[in-house]
Amino acid sequence: MGIVVRLDLVLARKKVKSKELAAFIGITEQNLSLLKSGKVRGVRFDTLSKICEMLECQPGDILEFDSSQRDEGDGDT
């Protein structure tokens, strides 16, 4: 599954710092960094909801499907 995380772009557009977003969501900056880099296996709806609330955006502004990308190490075909 090729889900691309566009959180960095939305943060820049909204001029919000990662540190501020992490504090609002209630997660560490390190975990937010992993989310931004796409190195997480999933995201809770509650976390996604808080991100969208803070950034005044929709989930589709943050997450994008790219069929040319595959998860590494997933094993699914």
From TrEMBL:
<protein>
    <submittedName>
        <fullName>Helix-turn-helix domain-containing protein</fullName>
    </submittedName>
</protein>
<dbReference type="GO" id="GO:0003677">
    <property type="term" value="F:DNA binding"/>
</dbReference>
<dbReference type="InterPro" id="IPR010982">
    <property type="entry name" value="Lambda_DNA-bd_dom_sf"/>
</dbReference>
<dbReference type="Pfam" id="PF13443">
    <property type="entry name" value="HTH_26"/>
</dbReference>
<dbReference type="InterPro" id="IPR001387">
    <property type="entry name" value="Cro/C1-type_HTH"/>
</dbReference>
<feature type="domain" description="HTH cro/C1-type">
    <location>
        <begin position="19"/>
        <end position="62"/>
    </location>
</feature>
